[in-house]
Design goal:
Pfam families: Lactamase_B (PF00753), Rhodanese (PF00581). This is MBL fold metallo-hydrolase. The protein has 453 residues and is an alpha/beta fold. It folds into three domains: 237 residues, 4-Layer Sandwich (Metallo-beta-lactamase, Chain A); 95 residues, Rhodanese-like domain (Oxidized Rhodanese, domain 1, 3-Layer(aba) Sandwich), CATH 3.40.250; 93 residues, Rhodanese-like domain (Oxidized Rhodanese, domain 1). Helix content is 30%, strand content 22%. α3 packs across α5.
Length: 453
Amino acid sequence: MVKLIKSAGIAHHSYFIGASGRAIVVDPRRDVEVYLDLAESWGLDITHIFETHRNEDYIIGSVELAHTTGAEIFHGENLDFAYGNPVKDGDKFQFGNIELEVLDTPGHTLESISLVLRDLSVSEDAQMAFTGDVIFAGETGRVDFYGVDRRPEMAGLLYDSLFNKILPLGDQTVLCPAHGAGSVCGADIREHDYTTVGYEKKTNHQLQVSREKFIQLKTAEELYTPPYFQKMEFYNQNGVQILGRLPYINALNPRILKNMMKDRLCILDIRKPTSFAGGHINGSLNIWREGVPAFAGWFLNYQDPIVLVDDHDHRMDEVRQSLVRLGFDNIYGYLAGGFPSWYLHAEHLDTLNLWSVHQLKEELGGDFFLLDVRKLEDHTEGYIEGSHHIYVGELPEKIGEIPQDVPVVVYCDSGYKSTTACSYLKKCGYTDLTSVLGSMTAWTNAGYPVVNE
């Protein structure tokens, strides 16, 4: 039996495999209770943990899970890991009738492996393959982590892995990738949890071109790389601190939080744009709750204590899990009673100006800097005339391109990322800022003109 465990926000997929009283976990996340609960409920002993590659977008939970269960960790031999056991192409692991075979499948990374599952009581044909970031539904892995100069080399390795190792497994083989739609590890992953070799051969255009064309396509891909990826790569090669349990977060009253603000501190306001704009703590960064997994890594650091602010301090566990998966163990606390406790204690408030798209239309051509913080491909498909483009995640490194002597008006897809951008710019000293509610979605729904490149 195979169970898919999905981690929202980072679109991470891990897998729990039960066979002959034992359990195998592939690419576990750091908060490992879900695997322990499954093992207990199914009456299994977790004995093997496999990593398909050194992951870049989250901290892998192998060390944590091994510490708890005594399981052994296995990963590709072409990287010098500080923990676990190297495996090589052709290695096989037997669990009763279930066999797992290791395939070397470099390209996304040099040490990438895939695991082929066979039920030998039924057939020697491959039943499933756990492919990591080699292939996804409708997409193949990114090849840019070793620098621009090595992209052609890595793309060639990826092509060979796909055509010499994965596709020959047979059309019947179910492919179990390490990510689903929305992951930054692929340009355009489909909304499919699973796929098959046969389906990908028919529908994945990257598998229908020559090796030369494939290398050209992959080399030309431009994908965003959040700065926290380097931290993940270090932790996932060298091991990370054992948690034992999710970090305890302190309930802080307004007086304590106010005193903490005298020192370095990150106040992370996880409310929605309208709530944040209506009133917030000065200097706070706004990333709406569901956006934390995708955008925290662009703006937070690993030193300053993080304090969470919500309206009613509900569902803090979700945010805590998301931050811990990215290595932000510096979560210190949350504002007890939520943001209402701040203003009920008569503390000072800050606000953010909001415009509707109708107001933006009326003001177009005025003396302000119009900033589009959507992804580049979205901007290319259509943008508002006169706007300047900087992706929201790249604001910290490109902030010098934004003038401080004129008002700045920010739009995105719907008004969430634009408010995040404004909150960051406020922290950096910008004072005249406006976020556009509804942003490009509302703009096009209103029938207003769009410039296409």
